[in-house]
Amino acid sequence: MAEMSNDYALARIPQDARKPMWDVFLVRFGAVATLSQFILGATLGYGMTLKQAMIATFLGSVLLEIVSLLIGIAGTREGMSTSLLTRWTGFGKVGSSLIGLIIAIACIGWFGIQNSVFAEGLIKAFGGHISFKLMSFITGMAITIIVVFGYKMISWTAKIAVPGFLIAVAYATYKMLSEHNLTELLNSAPPGEPLSIGVAVTMVAGGFMIGAIITPDLSRYNRNVKDVFWMTFLSIFLGELLINLIAVLMAHAVKSSDVVNIMLDLGGWFAAFLVIFATIKINDLNLYAASLGVTNFFDAMFGIKVNRGLMTLIIGALGTIMSIIGILENFVGFLVILGIAVPPVGGIMVVDYYVLKRHRKVLDETRVSGKLPEKFEKVNPITLLAWGGGFLVGYFVKSGIPSLNSLIASAVLYFVLMKLYAMATNREIVEFEHVKSI
Q1: Which of 313, 24, 277 is nearest to 149 (CA)?
Q2: CA 5 to CA 351: how far, in whole Å?
Q3: Cα 415 from Cα 396, distance rounded (Å)
Q4: The pLDDT of residue 331
Q5: Which domains are assigned to the chain?
Q6: 3-class SS of residue 435
Q7: According to the model, what pLDDT value does residue 2 have?
Q8: Which stretches of 129-196 are DSSP H helices?
Q9: N or C: which end of the chain has fewer CB within 10 A?
């Protein structure tokens, strides 16, 4: 049980523990085919025509796929989670531990917020006959117990929640088409305040950018690069385009952006329940990423190897308590800031792994034996500079997509600063002081 709950948090995943593409895809698709994605689609539909909403969704999805694929391939090659892989992709001991902590805080916060949405949705679907605090406790701890057992239990949950979600959406879609004229819905004007394409693309790409950055948490279970491509491509484009298309049409049909009301109106309470229940799939991944981040933080910073399952219990209880006492409403602004701080990690990882290739030799050598490299950098000051610069660009530059701005800026800064430092020190490959990893 202890081995299963630890879930290779601080090790490479061996080939015999890898999963078929469809197994990993279902888990990843479950992170997109959720209530929160439906809310995004309904919001787009409430303020845009169908054509506008689909253009924005397509552009945002392309950006997400590029980021997910590049980082996801690195994850499957090395068999490591995002926070662990960063030790050998530019961040070293200090940077990797900071990443683990930031990802953990962000995902714990979103876990609590999603738990509140989950609980409120269930209460609304069942007519409000149970208190919010009790429902929040039940939903939060239920998800926590699932995540304690790691990927295997998350996969089984996806096999229940995702089909249930699709059945509910299919039934509500059938009801919508039987009660409304499809041609009119396709050509109808948005019922709410207009949204610009730029804002909509920002919502689509920014809403799942952290999910794209932590792709290796799942892609490390893929067997090869081809599986990573299909896992990311199908989950993002099916999840974003298909779900948003249906949600936009429903928002036009019901003249509302309230997803629970839409599903109650078109599918009844059971369809509403199934859609709300699918929230479990994004929230178990929030908690899973948080548990991996915390485990990496303690190991990289202090050399303490904590059990991932035990940490899941602790942080799951913390997130549940936060949702129960309602302090998360004042936490959203902080999480938005973290949403700008995480994407630069992806930009730096891609440049270090694919362009500079500073640690590719030792990664290739140790991959054969299935072990981690024995050493990694203590601190890379250039990484910290590029990371901070990317964050400032994302925070202060108001045009475009903040999360994408921070990612691109950090990647460019990191590449330029590393090349300048290499020229100044007359070195082909720049490496800083190393410390033992084991």
Answers
A1: 313
A2: 33
A3: 22
A4: 66
A5: 2-330 (1.10.4160.10)
A6: strand
A7: 47
A8: 132-148, 151-179, 182-187
A9: N
Q: How confident is the model over 348-367, as pLDDT tens digits?
A: 999 999 999 999 999 999 99
Reading the block at residue 191, the tokens are: 């019922």
Which amino acid type is present at position 179? Answer: E
Kindly state the average pLDDT of the residues 332-353.
86
| Under 8 Å between Cβ of 21 and 231 | yes
Rg of the chain over Cα atoms, rounded to whole angstroms, equals 22
On whether the CB atoms of residues 395 and 324 are closer than 8 A, the answer is no
Tokens matching residue 73 = 């391939």
The secondary element (H helix, E strand) that includes residue 375 is: strand 375-377
Sign of the alpha-carbon torsion through 318, 320, 326, 329: positive
d(CA 168, CA 125): 13
End-to-end CA distance of the chain: 24
**Rounded-to-integer distance, Cα 89 and Cα 371, Å:** 16
What CA–CA distance (Å, rounded) separates 168 from 59?
27
The DSSP output letter for 436 is E
- Using alpha carbons, list the distances in angstroms from residue 151 to 124, 146, 226, 360, 434: 30, 9, 21, 27, 32
Tokens of 328: 């998360």
Length of the chain: 438
Maximum Cα–Cα distance across the chain:
72
125 vs 19, residue with greater confidence = 19
Q: Read off the pLDDT of residues 159-168 as tens digits, 9 standing for 90 and up.
A: 998 898 888 8
CA angle at residue 287 from 69 to 161, to 5 degrees?
80
Distances (CA, A) of 126 to 157, 227, 263: 22, 40, 13
Token couple for 408: 């691109």
CA-closest candidate to residue 208, choices 79, 92, 60, 76: 60
